[in-house]
Amino acid sequence: MYELNMLLHGAQALFNQPMALLLALFGVTLGIIIGALPGLTATMGVAILLPFTFGMDPLSGLLMISGVFFGGIYGGSVTAILLKIPGTPAAAATAIDGFELTKKGQAGIALGTATFSSFLGGTASVFVLIFLAPVLARFALEFSASESFALAVFGLSIIASISGVSVIKGLIAGFLGLLLATVGLDPMGGFPRYTGGYTELFNVPFIPVMIGLFAAAEAFKSLEDPQVRAGMAAALDRIIPPWHMFRRQLGNIARSSGLGIVIGMIPGAGADIAAFVAYNEAKRFSKTPENYGKGELGAVAACESGANGCTGGALLTMLTLGIPGDAVTAVMLGALTLQGLQPGPLLFKDHADLVFTLFAGMLVCYVFMLVVGLGSLRFMGRILQMPKSVLTPAILALCIVGTYAINNSMFDIWIMLAAGVVGYFMQKWDFPASPVVLALIMGPMAEANFRRALSLSNGSYDFLYTRPITATLLVIAILTLMLPLLRRLWAERSAGGPSTINPAAGSSRMGTPE
Amino acid sequence: MSNAPAPGGKAGLRPQDRLATLVIAVLVMAVAVAAIIVAGDFPPTMLETDVGPARFPIIFAGALLVLCAILVFNTLRAPAAPPDDLPQAGPKASYGTVAIGIVATAACLYAMEFVGYAIATPIYLFGLMWLMGRRNLIANAAIAAVLTALIYAAFAVALSVPLPVGSLFE
């Protein structure tokens, strides 16, 4: 009851500060734009706005930054669905099925579902942040290097289920991504691996690789098509998904939001991991898992509610313990300290009024996101009506500029181009691109935490089975990895003979990315 | 790729698909072998409890070798597609256009380093539109200029992200 009373007081205080609300609306709108532009992430958006908050009162500054954070995570889904350009790493999972839905002429429904799912996932996460902060923060404290390693392995085990028809090809793509993820500085000793002397390669440039594999590869594929004049007019005939359709996703959204919230609380695991894990679990629980990768609405709902659920989880550990859950909250930590506020248990004791007014404002931010998101979709959908002969060059130019924007580096653009060419050939021969991206995100996390855990246990591998959370996550990971193979064996047994699907042949969907 | 069922219910592979899969598998194996050889030169770790910088790359490369071997085995074992397994009906893909598009993108990047975003981008956009069959030169030039300006406004003006000016103008 204490929390509810404080929240009501906070809401009252918030609505007496119209300027703070206006800044929140500005933050959300800017966040959506930033999220939609390739190369510009929510982290960058928050970092860009950070200096502007210096002269603001704490509530206005923090609300504007929260708005950019929430809008940025959601905004990535718009271009992921419409153009297969994941505006943010979190939207890479959304692009898999979202763009397939666009190709089927269901972009409006996909965008609408993404918006509502983002809203529900994000709102749920803020409520959890408000009511369960102390309890969940204690649980998150249990996570050390070994649990983070197990979580990364669990994330990597998803590769098998996002591989489409050919698990072998998916695993090859995944391990290639893992090998690629070792390029750069060794996480323990700082030794440069496979960098060829290029300092630009000291950190794995995974955003250029992601833009290349998803967006540039798709644009190169468009060049193949001689019938390039046609756009996809009238693809956005309906944005609000029909209730009977959306109702079926509510369980999926609730589960994905919960996953997102828990993953958000774990330091080092951000919205991108939450989106991929939510995708995998939605597929596992689905009655039609075979439709995933071919344009399944449930996949979009899961990814978006998972990614946005992550926001509250990440804020939770940042506010209660001072441990940022991801890169954005790390920058937000800076914003708090700039305002003279010290995150931790004392923040709730000494500045309870401000904290609960901020929580009320975060709920309002999500309402703004829903309104601005739904209001702008039709305008954004007009992009689809452009002829491909204009859209494809525009996408390639956006890929170039978006990649350059990350580090102001021409080197990154060359990496993007190389990834685009590789991605094009991967599409041609049915090697899925998403395992590469997943591996690039989770590989460094797995290696660094494994080696840290090994050092903490004095070189003993006992931590793999003596710590309950680690052991549970690893068992789930093994089961997740085995599930597609077991399903195939089961199907073969049920059919009384070997599957007609040849593992070497891959998908029959010519050039369709997984 | 084709996987039309061959007699006996097994999926079939066209010769070109089989060849392409084998070439890709061999290329990936070559990358994995190179990675293992280079990892051999990584220095040993100073910490007794650490596995060192080479362990993980070697594990990943080793797994790649095994997986590629399985892919090669499956590909060689897969039956051939029946002769009537023709590619799906539809417009013929123009691989030449893709190749020119990739080369044009590389040329644009190369030019951007010298002449900057403002000159390289509109020429690139104009060229790609022409490549994709738009022959209205005036409209193409106008669209290229507008797109260049819009992207510049979004990134450089609104978000203060500096775009390449080119070494000739720095």
Automatic annotation (TrEMBL), chain A:
All residue ranges annotated as the DUF112 domain in the record: 21-438
The protein, known as: C4-dicarboxylate ABC transporter permease
PANTHER family per the UniProt record, alphabetical: TRICARBOXYLIC TRANSPORT PROTEIN (PTHR35342:SF5)
Q: Which organism is it from?
A: Azospirillum brasilense
Keyword list, A-Z:
Membrane, Plasmid, Transmembrane, Transmembrane helix
Q: Which residues form a coiled coil?
A: none
One Pfam family per UniProt: TctA
Q: Give TM regions.
A: 20-50, 62-83, 109-137, 149-181, 201-220, 257-279, 354-377, 389-406, 464-486
TrEMBL record, chain B:
Coiled-coil spans in chain = none
Pfam annotation, one family = TctB
Organism lineage string:
Bacteria, Pseudomonadati, Pseudomonadota, Alphaproteobacteria, Rhodospirillales
Q: Which UniProt keywords apply?
A: Membrane, Plasmid, Transmembrane, Transmembrane helix
- Give a yes or no for keyword Metal-binding in this entry: no
What domain of life does the native source organism fall in? Bacteria
Q: What is this protein called?
A: Tripartite tricarboxylate transporter TctB family protein
TM ranges are: 20-42, 54-73, 93-125, 137-161
Keyword Cell wall biogenesis/degradation present in the record's keywords: the answer is no
Occurrences of domain DUF1468 (ranges): 23-164
InterPro entries reported in the protein's UniProt record? DUF1468
